Amino acid sequence: IVTVNCARLLKADHHATNGVVHVIDKVIATTTNSIQHLIETEESLETLRAAVAASDLNSLLESEGQYTLLAPTNEAFEKIPRETLNRILGDPEALRDLLNHHILKSAMCAEAIIAGLTMETLEGTTLDVGCSGEELTLNGKPIIANKDVLATNGVVHFVNELLIPDSAKTLFELAQESEVSKSTDLFRQAGLSSHLT
Question: Please, how many CA atoms are within 13 Å of residue 164, restricted to the half-sphere of its CB?
């Protein structure tokens, strides 16, 4: 599937006497803002704006290139426990891993994403993209709230749930989500849970 500024290419290579015509499914609007500028001006990305500033990713998101930012909204940050959020925001390495997990190495418009596609993030991890009816899914969840917001250096999809990579989790958080959750309970009962957090 080919897209032009996120407009789907319907018919290609119509030759005329003075050139070639490609038919697309929407009008292409002028794009003048970088991804960083979009973050700075969008009210629903206030928490993300602070996180990007704290991790020094501003220069990357305003540089030339083609990226896809899965931009967590304020709502996405509010869904995780305050203690977890404060820990990540206070840990530069975990914060950078978290944000890089939301940035793809290439610009991917929604129309061009095929169900079952695995995409690599800047952090080096992968995200599984699929479909649930007409909704796009990330790792099996329909969490994309707004898609195909174009920037001069890529495209932004707003997501209403935070995608936390393993590298930004504590041992305790990882264990709770895995097959060793019962062992975690035993550590807690023995008064050793602080070692896992």
Answer: 19
